[in-house]
Structure formats: structure tokens, C-alpha cells
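Example (one chain per record):
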Amino acid sequence: MKRTEQDEAMIRYLLGEATEDEQTRIEEQFFQNDDSYQQLVALEDELRYDYAQGGLTRKERASFEKRFLNTDEDRRKVALAKEVMARAHSERAATMVPARAERTSFWQFFSSPLRLSFAASTALLAVLGAFLTLHSVHLSDQLDQLRAQRSSDQQTAQQQVAALEKQRADLQQQLNSRPTQQATPTLFSFVLMPGMTRDADVTKPLLIPAGDGEVRLQLDLKKKGAYKSYLASVQTIDGEQVWSQNLQSAQLTVPAKVLPSGDYVVELKGIVAGGETENAGEFYFTVVRK
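Predicted structure:
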């Protein structure tokens, strides 16, 4: 079987003797066309049989040994090729008339029109089966390599995902462990004197900025320390209660949000022994929200 120019180019590629343009073209072909790849695999097997018969040139044999005899598996395939060809020649020699010896390729050997005996034909079929087995092993090896590569890629991807998940969990843990900063409410403190009237000219207004916060009112008592505790009630001038609080001292804290602009009075009751209450003073003030 005469080799085509494409066959010769592929053989040069397999032996590492192809030009850069040939190498690029062949690789594009067998990546895009499965038939081209199968042709390349078949030529690789035929190179083994040519090598087993001693049919390659000295340069080709050197290139073949450099590229295809590097591993135990490579050497096993060549040994099997030698065994197949030896058996084939033995069976053919037993059935052929003497003729001038010439080297033939593996495919030429099996496509010869010589008529063989039934026994020889059976033997040659066995040899052909061995060749197909070798070819199948070759393809199986390549399939195993692809599967191993795919498994390795999947394992690498899983490891990367696990690493990212761990990193995310560590960051979340760091965020959770950070102390929560609670906003401290703004505090506005004022001192109220007892006995002042609700007259705006007399009562000093309490200037409180808009927004949330707390207003601390220090009540200046005439009789200090006369009571065990106090009950304070903050009311509008109209008598509507907006805040009340039990106190241990004459000081109360009122949320600023319950004190819109307007006039207010703090009615303070002193609690004596037995739980009875006495009037401890009234404290007028005016709120102005800015």
C-alpha cells in the first residue's frame, strides 16, 4: 500500500521530523477531524511494525527509539509487534512458494493476494486478532489517560471550591467575632430650679437639637435627702403626661423624642416611710427643638 503525502507528513510528525508548518497543520487536523486522528494512531502502529521488521532507515530508527522507546509500556508494544510479525512470517513461509525476499509493510502483508491454506489462514487470523488487540490496548491507554486527566481536573476544581468556602467561612467568623459597636445616645443635661412659673420671660428655654437623644434633668430641691425615693411625672402645661419615672435621686432622664417644642412641668413626689407621697416641688421648663 503506497503512502500518500499526508501519510508521509504524519510519519515525520510522529518521528519529530516535521516542519513547524506541518506540525501546526497536522495538529489542527486531528483536533478538528476524528478521522485524521485515527489515521495518525494507525500510522503510529505501522511504525512499530516497520521498526520490528528492521525496515526503517537509520535516521528513522534513531528518531523512533527516541520518541517511542522511553517507557516500559512503549517497549512492550514494540515487543508485541515483533512477536506478531514473527508469527505472521512463519505461517506465510510455510504456505508460500520460494520467492525473492522483500520487506513489506504490515498492511501490504495482510493484503497480499496469495492463496493460503485453511490452517495458515486460521493462524493469520489469530495474528490479525493480536494486532487488533494491540491497537485496542493503545486506544484504551489513551482513553485511560484522558479519564485520569479529567478526574485530576475535577479534583483540582473541588479543592479550589473547598478552599474558597473555607476562606468565606473564616471571613464570616471574623466578622461575627468583631465586637458590636452600639451607638451611644446623645445626652443633653439641664438643671431645673423649683418654683419657677410657666412665664416664658422667666423660664429659660432648653435648646435641644432635632433627632434622637436623651435629656437629663437635674432637679434642684430645697429639702435634699428628705425622702427615700421619688416619683417624677413630666406633663405638658395642659396636664397631659408624656413621661414618668421612679427615681432614687432627684434626677431623671427623658427621651428627647417625647419632648417636642413647647412648655412642660415636672411634678415631683417624695416617697416617705410607709410608701406615702408628698409634694416635693414643681419644675417648669420650655423646650425649643432646633
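Caption: The longest helix spans residues 118-177.
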